[in-house]
Amino acid sequence: MNKLKAVCVYCGSNFNGDIHLRNAIKKLAEILVEEDIKLVYGGGSVGVMGLLANDVLELGGQVTGVIPQFLMDKEVGHKGITEMIITENMHQRKQKMADLSDGFVILPGGFGTLEEFFEVLTWLQLGLHNKPIGVLNVGGFYDPLFAQMELMVQSKFLKPANRDLVFNEADANILIDKMDHFSAVPDEVWYKERDLI
Ligand code: AMP
After folding, report:
1. Fewest beta carbons less than 10 Å away: which of 4, 9, 76, 150?
2. Residue closest by Cα to atom 12 of ligand 1
3. Would you say the CB of residue 45 lies under 6 angstroms from ligand 1?
4. What topology is assigned to 6-187 in CATH?
């Protein structure tokens, strides 16, 4: 591992108690700390967000939270993380989280998680950044989403090359390893291959 110094994790502000998800969160935290990768996340102390931040902190890792002022109370902004960045609004929050990170991991979550995932994915599709995006598909939680992407490809709304931009792995070790080996395609090839211009 050498390219990933900070990874942004998008995940739920709720947690459903699933033991497999709990274990996956712990394993991801262990890998981040072992590989000296800083966690960048939404700054909350609740749900999957809070569990992941606490696991990383307990193992001695670095955690940067990015949260807009109005969510500090609502999501119970985490009081014990290494660094908390407070933004004026959601757009600034998401831009900051993306700017601070070398890649993005998606854990189970709700609308907010999906919105954040698809925003960085569309930015990658448009060539606005060249950072790897990986779904940690715990227990097949995101299988229906990948089935929808396949339907979008078959319906000609999504190019296969763009569908393939997302890593889909159930094992955090494999996912982080693949993300670390992700290499950007030169612009000429990028645009030609993917027929954007
Ligand atoms: P959720 O997956 O809905 O539990 O939300 C996870 C994270 O996404 C939380 O930090 C929320 O603040 C954030 N979030 C929720 N709704 C939105 C939204 N509409 N746009 C962007 N982020 C959101």
Report:
1. 150
2. 112
3. no
4. Rossmann fold (3.40.50)
